[in-house]
Amino acid sequence: MKLYTAVALGLVAGLLLGLVASITGWPWLMAIATGIEPIGQAFVDLLKMVVIPLVVVVIFVGVGTLGDLRRLGQLGGLTLLFFAATSAIGVLMGMGVMQVFLPLASEAAADAVAGAATEAPVLPGPIEFLLSLIPSNPFAAAAEGALLPLIVFTIFFAGATGALPERERETLLSLASAMSEALIKMVHWILWLAPIGVFALAAPVTARAGWAMLQSLGAFILAVLAGLVVFVAVVYLPAVRFLGGMPAGTFLKRCLNPILIAAGTSSTAATLPAMLETADEELRLSRPVWSFVIPLGAGLARMGTALFQGAAIVFLAWLFGVPLAASGIGGAVLATFIVSFTVPGIPAGGVVSLAPALGAVGVPLDGLAVLLGVDRIPDMARTATNVTGILAASVVVDNQVATSEGSTESG
Can you give the residue range of the structural domain that contains 369? Predict the structure, then answer.
């Protein structure tokens, strides 16, 4: 049995166990479903254990081997353009899809918000966010798991390494390459535990949420899931086919393993090792490209989350009876677009960071408590979409860079 098949079976089995435990209410079954949660947490911790060192070495090797800093600028420009464009499309598509599904929403959802109160999280403004990208202490950034500041430091360090004389440059790059191979070997070992880990993650959260909670917010969940499927079908797959030069079916088949792991862990950062392995061994992309695009995407790209947040704004405005004025929608779109680049790659990160967008349209922050109660399934789907987008960006950028270099050489 292939690994991705085993992971899919583990995910389905965990969901079924949780639903049966919730519906029947049998104490012994509920105890089993919730008691295995530490196993799932251990699996996520194993993945996160290798994330920080793996990010550093793969970006260092990728940027350091570029040599020509103009190529680094080309890679960064193409990557950020892809992420920004697809995030903006995601916000607008999420709002539109939720409007279509609102007639299916049940008034019973209002009972879930009665008496709920949520304090607004403190999120950085645009200037503070830009300043936070410069780590005053890169070791502290690594200890705190702050990927973006660490990526900025690593890119600068690797760029400086690329400017060194050949002997010193090759010494540092050889050491980093050897470390990368060792970490990837660790990833291979950890991924064999993925079916068990995904099973142990899905069962307890499904058991706690219960079918009644899912039903009360069924219209919202269905809208998000449908929107994410449409988003992948009309944005990612055409981009892969026409800009990346790869058949859509081939792309999806080769990316299935990290997509399923993303759905099971609800963490883009935890899926990073699997994405790197897929880009190298399955998609067979250029190492300087995937070693730059994928770690950057893990810290920055939240296109599926942008769609989720767009849908959440429309849904919560309906739930609380807040009319959406044109100016408010514009502010909400802008806030969601900016915040989507700062969403932490952790479960429920997309809900916590919704506060600025809700404030732009006047929706009470109590709505955050509503979404947190049923966030697991949308979180699984949007994380899988985020990972699909990062891999799609890698394919597109790889093909565009190769085409550009071919044109330069022929000219």
Answer: 3-410
